[in-house]
Input
Amino acid sequence: MSSTSSPSPEPAALIPLPVAAVTCTEDRAHIERTAVLELAAGTQRLRLGPVTALAVDRTLHAALSGGPEATVLDVRIVRAWTPRDPGPGDDDSALRRRVTALEGERSELEHQRDRLAARLDLLARLAADLLREIAEGAGHGEAENDRWTRELDRVDGERDAYGEELRAVEARLARIAVELSEAQQAWALSEREPAELTGHVELTVHAEAAGRTELRLGHLTPCALWRPAYRAVLDGPELTLDTDAIVWQRTGEDWSDVRLTLSTARSAAATEPPRLGEDRLTLTDRSPAERRTVHVDLREEEVAELGPAPVPGLPGVDDGGEVRVLHAPAPVSVPADGRAHRVPLSSFTSSARSEYACSPELSPLVDQVVRFDNGSGHALLAGPVDLIGGSGFTGRGTLDFTAPGAPVDLAFGSRDDHRVLRHTEETRETTGITQRTVLTRTVRLHVSRFSAPGERDERVIVLRERIPVSEVSAVEVRLRREACSPVPDAVDADGIVRWNLPLSPGARRTVTLVYEISASGKVSGL
Output
């Protein structure tokens, strides 16, 4: 856009443009900045900042409100390599002199060490020659004990003196190496720091009259993310659940006392729906062999709710397919150090019901499962939860996505005073006339409770086993209730058989499950 007035000269000082609010998403953040500007009449260019050099240019947006009528003509981010702030000048000169003096002293000591080493080597050869002379003289019958003793004492004394001096020089060299390394590091940090990339905002505005106006500027920035985390405290029949946000950011600038909003929006995801291709179905006649047989397979199906598949590393935010927004109740500060910072979001206390559950086919452990209702007023996103019991920290679990007011199942760890053993038997029979195959499976569960002295309370263990569920009429699955001991308390449509097994302290119980899989003669693969 153009204007009749020419832009004013660029000011030397930057107008502060602090971060006022941050909306942190799954892998980036939307930064909102505010500043109060003193505008003159006409077109002018302002420099504001500093701002992070990681700001995304195409997301930059500026708006003016209040004061005289003004229009934003242009807004852009200008980046430049600038040296970092050096240390005091006196320290810089002292460091340079210190490094130079240490390097000179190190060079002199190295020369002295070489001279001492050469002299010690010469004395070693002299001692060897003297010993050889003594040996030859003694062989010829010569005996100069006084001279030999005097010369040997002199050589040994000089070797001890020079050796001690050499050790002192080497010790001094080691100390100088440490001092020189520290001085060089300090010198590098204070005077030879590499330049860093900084940025500032250049704003061109046109004001109809002079006055004060408020600027609101927003942009996206990478290198920021958040994930939910929880802390569950079980105190008798009540459970307190604290919802926190773990925030990481390394955007190049600290967030100080900002309004923090946490969102599960994925701005980088594609918004265009995928194209549907043709899916042609064709019918073919079955062969006589295919008409005579029905092939079945046994497969494992995990009963679970909808949600993203687990991935290795840091998982994404499971929001149930709908964008969720959470707000920090108070201003927060998050430094740009790349570390995890915990931000409290909400807390509630609810009545809890405990259940001791075990699925022996999957695990022989008896877990304490706590059930309560989500009374936080917002959806609980999937995330880790620190478990706090009566004895303190008991472990870490996982909380699945839970809608507001929905029931929550939270495992509080296994019980060491219970033991479950599982044994299975299988028999196969084929009738002679109909050629019908009957597969009978028997599952025995041995449950034991080891109690400490003084325990008197009875505990109910909820055991769950499963039986196959048939999808074809040629295969039938029947639970033989008369052979089960005790009779199951419930069997659901997914084939999950449940017993509520009471156990007194020190008690042992055996649970028997019997079911039949019956298939006609034309069924194969069973």
Remarks:
- The chain has four domains: 19-84+195-221, 89-191, 224-266+317-404, 418-524.
- The chain is about 20% helix and 40% strand.
- The first helix runs from residue 89 to 139.
- The first strand starts at residue 19 and ends at 24.
